[in-house]
Amino acid sequence: MYSLLSEILSWQDWIILSLCALTIGGNKAGLRGINIIVIPIFASYFGGKASSSTVLPLLILGDIFSVIIYRKNIKWSYLKQLLPSTLAGLAGGMLLGQLFSDRSFIYVMSFFILFCLILMVYKEFSSKTLILPDHWAAHSIAGFTGGFSSMVGNAAGPIMSLYLLSMNLPKMVFIGTGAVFFFIVNLLKIPVHLFIWKSMSLETLKISLILSPFILLGLFLGLKLVRIIPEKPFRLFIILGTLLGTVKLFLG
């Protein structure tokens, strides 16, 4: 099913996928929120589970550099609160992937992307700061939702960003804690793709390997661009582009 994916891609497709890899690198460098636009683009090329398994090594590569860069700014107590319920969310997403067809999986993925877009729009236009209670139930809900949405579509970024921001973490601690969280979660997803869903293959890894240099380039450019790009127009562009991509997924 997933064989010879790289051989049917045109040079225009490779350009688009390379730009997506640049975007992932930029996200890991600090251009928060832009990662979500990649998800529907990859899904439109490879389907639901195969797209997740193709993106996953690219995310982990970016995570490694994020953790190295922000290793001194990690709030471990929040990770300890989140990870148990996150594991439950990952397990729920794994079971859903087993039960659903790839087309149904794409619909669920699209739902979570749209949910994340709503969160992004709320953060962008709301004059109120969302404050979640420092309570085990709030941590559990955030962890489960983050784990589940990450498993079904690598779409946990806006959810966890909103959660960590609501904890009033300093900017650098917010970035460092998020970097370690996603690194751990993404590593935990590898056995699911390899042995349970069987969606990760030599072919998907080949595509990831070809695109990996663009992750590094995106990290370099992201560290430069984060200081000069006007944030509001940029984030609005990401929201609109992701919405259009998700609508395309729904329409097939």
Secondary structure layout:
Elements: H1 11-29, H2 38-46, H3 48-69, H4 76-99, H5 102-125, H6 136-153, H7 157-166, H8 171-196, H9 202-225, H10 231-251
Helix pairs in contact: 1-3, 1-9, 2-3, 2-10, 3-8, 3-9, 4-6, 4-8, 5-7, 5-10, 6-7, 7-8
Descriptive account of the structure:
- This protein is 78% helix and 0% strand.
- It has 252 residues and is mainly alpha-helical.
- The chain has one domain.
- The protein is globular and about 50 Å long.
- It starts with 10 loop residues before the first helix and ends with a helix.
- The model has no long low-confidence stretch (mean pLDDT 82).
**Major sheet attributes:** none
Q: Which outline best applies?
A: globular
> What radius of gyration results from the CA coordinates?
17 Å
Number of strands: 0
Q: Unreliable stretches, pLDDT < 50, 5 or more residues?
A: none
- Distance between the terminal alpha carbons, to the nearest Å? 18 Å
Number of helices: 10
Helix content, binned percent? over 70%
Structural class: mainly alpha
Mean pLDDT score: 82
Strand content: under 5%
Order of helices and strands: HHHHHHHHHH
Descriptors for this entry?
transmembrane; 252 residues; globular; TSUP; TM_pro_TauE-like; mainly alpha; membrane
Brief synopsis:
The protein has 252 residues and is mainly alpha-helical.
